[in-house]
UniProtKB/TrEMBL annotation:
Keyword Cytoplasm recorded: yes
Transferase is among the record's keywords: yes
Pathway annotation from the record: Metabolic intermediate biosynthesis; chorismate biosynthesis; chorismate from D-erythrose 4-phosphate and phosphoenolpyruvate: step 5/7
Protein name per the record: Shikimate kinase
Gene name linked to the record: aroK
Cofactor (UniProt): Mg(2+)
Function: Catalyzes the specific phosphorylation of the 3-hydroxyl group of shikimic acid using ATP as a cosubstrate.
Domain of life (superkingdom): Bacteria
Organism field: Nesterenkonia lacusekhoensis
Ligand binding (substrate): 33, 56, 79, 134
Principal EC category: transferase
UniProt keyword annotations, A-Z: Amino-acid biosynthesis, Aromatic amino acid biosynthesis, ATP-binding, Cytoplasm, Kinase, Magnesium, Metal-binding, Nucleotide-binding, Transferase
Length: 175
């Protein structure tokens, strides 16, 4: 069994949906951002001190380590993790789910953006630009994409489980 990896833009619910999905599947849930913080400290402070390039390098190493765990897990990645082509290559052997989100939903979830270093002083303008730059990459990596229409955490987790374990439709009954 492969890991289930959640990707998508900032504010799409990767961490919360990942935790709910892991409970349903009886798997551990790991958030790469939380793992980064535990190892290196605050992401905004790390960005300021070391820059994005160093952050992405360390993020890649953490993701490689998490994906290499012997126990299949649900792993939530930071929004920019897919920018590293080495990380994208690692995702090819995993089950990857993109959680999509509308700009209106993002505005409600990211607030003033102070905890998200790539957003700067105009968080929604930056979010919209970043989403436009990354959407194609997210979709290219994903085995399934969950529409932004499913707003509830529970609904999103249930949808993923249903898509991972489709029930036979009974249409292919041949004597």
């Amino acid at each position: 069994m492969s890991n289930i990896v959640l990707i998508g833009p900032m504010g799409s619910g990767k961490s919360t949906v990942g935790a709910a999905l892991a409970r349903r599947l009886g798997r551990p849930h790991v958030d790469s951002d939380h793992f980064f913080v535990a190892r290196y400290g605050s992401i905004p402070e790390y960005f300021r001190a070391h820059g994005e390039k160093d952050f992405r390098e360390r993020e890649h190493r953490i993701i490689a380590e998490l994906l290499d765990s012997p126990r299949p897990s649900v792993i939530s990645l930071g929004g920019g993790a897919v920018l590293d082509e080495r990380t994208r290559a690692l995702l090819k052997d995993q089950t990857v789910v993109m959680l999509d989100i509308t700009p209106d939903q993002a505005a409600l979830r990211i607030g003033d953006g102070t905890s998200r270093p790539v957003l700067g002083d105009e968080p929604m303008e930056a979010w919209t630009r970043i989403y436009a730059e990354r959407e194609t990459i997210y979709r290219a990596c994903a085995d399934m994409v969950l529409s932004a229409d499913d707003e509830s955490i529970e609904t999103r987790a249930d949808t993923i489980v249903a898509r991972l374990n489709p029930t036979p439709s009974g249409d292919d009954t041949t004597p």
